[in-house]
Each structure stands twice: as C-alpha cells, then as structure tokens.
Amino acid sequence: MISDRLNDALVIRTAVPAEAEVIADLHFRARSTYYPDGVPQADVDWTKAWRGSIERPDGHVLCAVERSRIVAIASFRTPDGAPARTVKLFQFHVDPGHWRAGIGTALHAACVEEWRADGRRTAVLDVHADNRRAQSFYARQGWTPDPENPPADGDHHLSLRFSVPGE
Predict the structure, then answer these.
(1) Extended beta strands in the chain, E state
(2) Using only C-alpha atoms, what is the Rg of the chain?
(3) What's the CA gap between 113 and 1, in Å, rounded?
C-alpha cells in the first residue's frame, strides 16, 4: 500500500477520517464546476459519506497534499459483484484552483501504482456526460469508452475502462 509518495512539494498519501470534512468541501467545489444548475444530492451529508469511504476496509481514499493542504482526492474499491481484479474509481477530484498543475496526473499515477500492487488489471469509472474537462483528462491517461457499458438513452454518465499495466 502507498503510505507516502513525494513529488517535489506534493505528497500523495492515504486519507484519514479526520480529513473527511476538508475532502467533502473539495468534492463539492470540484463538482460545482460541471453542474451549472446546482450540484445534485446537495442534501447528502458528504462529510459522513467521505468518512465512510475512508474507513471502508475494502476501499482506498488517496489524497494529494501540497503545503499541508489537500488539493486532490481519489476513492476506489472493487465494485459490488465485480471480479476481484477489477477496481472502480468512484471519485477523482482536483481542487479547481489547482487544475493544470500536474496534480491530477500525479494522483492518477499513484492510483495506478496501488492498483498494480493490489493485482488489479482493469479499472472502470463513470464520468458525467457534460464534464468534458474530466473526459479529456481520462483520455490522456489512457481511459477508453467501456464497450460492456454503452450509454443508455437519457443517461448523464459515460462508462470508461482502463487496462492497468502489468509488471
């Protein structure tokens, strides 16, 4: 498991439950950028939800920390009913004030390193159909449309797939 990964002034590490409120705030700010009419599920207790994700024994939450401040987060685990060698990236957010600084790329590389160490070979995710910035980012990282999960009529999400490189 990754405990700390240093990249100049950026540290990527496992999040702790006490950081759930800060993570929930970053999550809200990032999601607000691609929901012009307001963030859905605004009534959800996201601090509680993030604390649950962090404490989940079968999941991982990584955070990128720069100058003692969390600037990006990633949450992943094996989705229910999926093969053990598959991992789902449930959340991946970079603080909007830190976009285009290489933080997302570094965090993604840390996720891939963790997936490889855990024996994962396939990663999947859902990205909002209107979030073109995220879709471009994922494409640059090697994600492609998931042929097993084409978008349904009226669906607001696209399913993407990533082949985790082997040793």
Answers:
(1) 4-7, 10-14, 59-66, 69-77, 86-94, 122-128, 144-145, 157-163
(2) 15
(3) 9
Residue spans of alpha helices (H) in the chain: 20-32, 46-55, 103-117, 132-141
Place of tokens 């720069």: 66
Q: Which two tokens stand for residue 86?
A: 């598959």
Amino acid at 2: I
The model's pLDDT over 50-108, given as tens digits with 9 standing for 90+, comes to: 999 999 999 999 999 998 999 999 999 999 888 989 999 999 999 998 888 899 999 99
Taking only the tens place, the pLDDT of each residue in 12-23 is 999 999 999 999
From the centroid of its chain, how far is CA 117? 17
